[in-house]
Design goal:
The chain is an alpha/beta fold and 295 residues long. The protein has helices spanning 25-29, 60-68, 84-98, 119-132, 192-201, 231-260, 271-276, and strands at residues 12-18, 38-43, 74-79, 102-107, 110-117, 137-144, 161-170, 175-177, 185-187, 220-224, 279-281, 287-289. It has 2 domains: 5-228, Spore Coat Polysaccharide Biosynthesis Protein SpsA, Chain A; 235-289, no CATH class.
Length: 295
């Protein structure tokens, strides 16, 4: 299905997660047609998003299926509402089930930069570099526009500049998101406890059990904007991003606390129960327990 026939011996899958993404999906996915073998798309609301519905109501997933299923070898979809990291992991697991050598991960507000669309160069660099180095995660250059086009929603990097972003995963079947975050990866055979125990011993060193992106693949670059989203979507997403940032950092703390033997909060039998108990965060990022207290 790919134009770069020279590398037809590899399978490449595009993956995305969305929620009421009907207005964005064509802009994001259309430029990949003819350049990837498969597509995986997962719908569903993230935890802490205040929108009322667990799954999308705009039919974006059906629209995408009608638009792309005949243009790729495999077009797979799923529905999942819950933690961001679990929803994104589902993309990896589905891609693994259909046989994928490289997984390209995009959000629905991302799209290919029109000035950088050399797919032959992209695949030449990707294949050759992946044969030279042992890296499992590769970067792509992304252009960060100003806040009017792309409200940052908790992201702290500057506007109007290029930055490297981890977007390409080699052998995704062997990878998982680790530490309950959406920006760390490791082998599926490695536990979070093993990662933490090593890092506690070597606090200032790079953890050799984590997959870290270092090398950007040239030829194709990306950018993003959120102008196709409604004001309500951007408001809900900003609220979600704030809470999710604190939730991910809290989950790392809970894992550390368990390993270090920190006393379990009063009223709970384990750190796992505390983590999974209903809660939110106030405007200062302080956890607010929503568990109904026994009378």
């Amino acid at each position: 299905m790919r134009v770069a026939k020279e590398y037809k011996n590899i399978e490449v899958t595009l993956a995305t997660v969305g929620y009421n993404s009907r207005r964005e999906i064509a802009r994001m996915a259309d430029p990949f047609v003819g350049h990837v073998d498969n597509m995986v798309m997962v719908d569903g609301k993230y935890d802490f998003n205040p929108a009322p519905d667990e799954r999308s109501t705009d039919g974006w997933l059906d629209y995408a299926r009608d638009r792309y299923s005949s243009k790729v070898k495999e077009f797979k979809t799923a529905i999942f509402a819950g933690k961001q990291v679990d929803k994104r992991q589902l993309c990896f697991d589905i891609a693994a089930s259909i046989g994928t050598d490289f997984l390209i991960v995009m959000d629905t507000d991302d799209y290919i930069h029109p000035d950088y669309t050399n797919w032959d160069l992209f695949y030449s660099n990707l294949v050759k570099l992946s044969e030279i180095v042992d890296d499992k995660v590769f970067m792509m250059w992304e252009w960060i526009p100003d806040d009017n086009l792309w409200p940052k929603q908790g992201n702290i990097f500057p506007s109007n500049c290029w930055r490297r972003s981890a977007r390409i995963h080699k052998d995704p079947a062997q990878q998982r998101y680790c530490m309950d975050t959406h920006y760390m990866w490791c082998p599926k055979t490695v536990t979070d406890e093993e990662l933490l125990e090593w890092q506690l011993k070597y606090r200032d060193a790079d953890n050799p059990m984590q997959y870290v992106g270092r090398i950007p693949i040239e030829g194709v670059r990306i950018t993003m904007d959120r102008t196709l989203r409604t004001d309500e979507q951007n408001k809900n997403n900003a609220y979600w991003a704030f809470l999710n940032q604190h939730a991910e950092q809290s989950r790392i703390y809970y894992k550390n606390a368990k390993i270090l033997g920190t006393p379990i909060p009063a009223g709970y039998s384990s750190w796992e129960e505390f983590e999974n108990s209903p809660h939110t965060f106030d405007e200062d990022g302080v956890r607010v327990d929503l568990r109904k207290k026994e009378k």
